[in-house]
Structures are given as structure tokens and as C-alpha cells.
Specification:
Elements (H helix, E strand, L loop, with lengths): L2 H19 L11 E6 L9 H11 L6 E2 L2 H9 L8 H11 L4 E16 L5 E16 L4 E7 L3 E8 L11 H34 L2
Helix pairs in contact: 1-3, 2-5
């Protein structure tokens, strides 16, 4: 007897999330507004955009404002961001939020090699991760700049008797992702003001 009520509540919660995600908020009209999301989907590494956004918001001197992470997680999960559709999808999200730019954060380098010991008792796991930011102009759907970190490498040896976790749950992958996040955030913080200025001047015909 309680199932219809549970379904109704679940539907209401979904609608509330959708409404919250689609309401643009801008605290500082004088600052550029940026939509930061995980993408393109085929190169996304969960937590990358979140980490970069946290890093940027930690610095009170960041010369632009970011669309709320909550809104971005909802919108990116409901948008086709695969391959050639990624930049137009990111641009569409930015326009829906009134943002001046969209930035897709992905992992173009995500390699995990597993080598099992001769006696099969242990395995060595070697990982490489690099993060990349693709800056999209929402007026043209074009990628106008690409920023990439160094490639971070790490290894570990573990017992071979347990199942191998998924790549996105791998502790070494996550540690390397977290090491790359500050570097990418610093590059975005440094380069974006110049890019915004160039794009705004170009769009005004100046």
C-alpha cells in the first residue's frame, strides 16, 4: 500500500532536483561565470571536475565565478557529452546557466597496467593519469583552448587473491587524480581571464 506514495515522493524529489539545477545563480555580475563539468564522457574520471571546482573556490582571488557543483552534476548526467556531441552539449549547459564559458574536465591519459607475479601470489599495478580542461565557447559550440597537466605516475603491489577493483575506484588512480587537480586548477585560474577578455572583445566586434 505504501509503494504509490514512495513513487510519488521519488518523483517529487526528482522534479525538485531538476528545478534547482535549472535555475541560474550569479552572485557577482561583474565576474565571468563558468560552467565546470566532467567530460567528454568517454574520457571522464569521476571527481575530477568536483576537485578542480573545490580548488578554485578555495581561493578567494579566483577571477571568475562558477556555476554550483550541484547543478553541474545534475545537468551533465542528463546531457549527451560523448565524442563530437560533447562540446555542443557543454555549450548548451553553459547557455542554460547564463555562463560565459563551459569547461570540460577529463582524463585523456588514464592507463592501468596489471602484472601478476610468477607465483600468482601478488600483482603489481602501474597507473598513469593526466587531466585536461577543454574550454568551450557557448556562442559557437567550439573548443577554444585546451589545458593539460603533466602525466602523473604511481605503482603499488597487492595480494592477488582479491578481485581487481574498477579503474574509477582504484586507490592509485584516485590519488593521482587528486595530485593533478591543483595543477589543472592553477592553469585554469591563470589562463581563463585572458581568454574571456579575448572572446568578449571578439563577440562585441571591438
Amino acid at each position: 500500500m505504501k509503494r504509490p506514495r514512495v513513487r510519488a515522493m521519488a518523483g517529487l524529489i526528482t522534479l525538485l532536483f531538476a528545478a534547482a539545477a535549472c535555475v541560474p545563480t550569479r552572485e557577482s555580475p561583474d565576474l565571468p561565470l563558468v560552467a565546470l563539468l566532467n567530460g567528454p564522457a568517454q574520457a571522464a574520471l569521476t571527481g575530477s571536475a568536483e576537485g578542480v571546482q573545490t580548488e578554485l573556490e578555495r581561493d578567494s582571488g579566483t577571477p571568475f565565478e562558477l556555476v554550483s557543483a550541484f547543478s553541474m552534476r545534475f545537468l551533465e548526467s542528463h546531457t549527451d557529452l560523448f565524442h563530437s556531441r560533447a562540446a555542443p552539449g557543454a555549450a548548451r549547459i553553459a547557455r542554460s546557466q547564463g555562463a560565459d564559458l563551459a569547461i570540460m574536465v577529463g582524463a585523456p591519459v588514464l592507463v592501468r597496467d596489471v602484472a601478476v607475479s610468477r607465483d600468482s601470489a601478488t600483482r603489481r599495478i602501474d597507473v598513469q593519469v593526466a587531466l585536461e580542461a577543454q574550454v568551450v565557447d557557448p556562442r559557437t559550440d567550439a573548443v577554444v583552448q585546451v589545458l593539460r597537466t603533466r602525466t602523473f605516475s604511481g605503482s603499488r603491489v597487492e595480494a592477488n587473491d582479491a578481485p581487481l577493483v574498477d579503474v574509477e575506484d582504484d586507490t592509485t588512480v584516485l590519488a593521482l587524480r587528486d595530485s593533478a587537480v591543483p595543477e589543472l586548477a592553477a592553469a585554469i585560474r591563470a589562463e581563463l581571464p585572458y581568454l574571456v577578455r579575448e572572446l568578449l572583445i571578439g563577440s562585441s566586434g571591438g
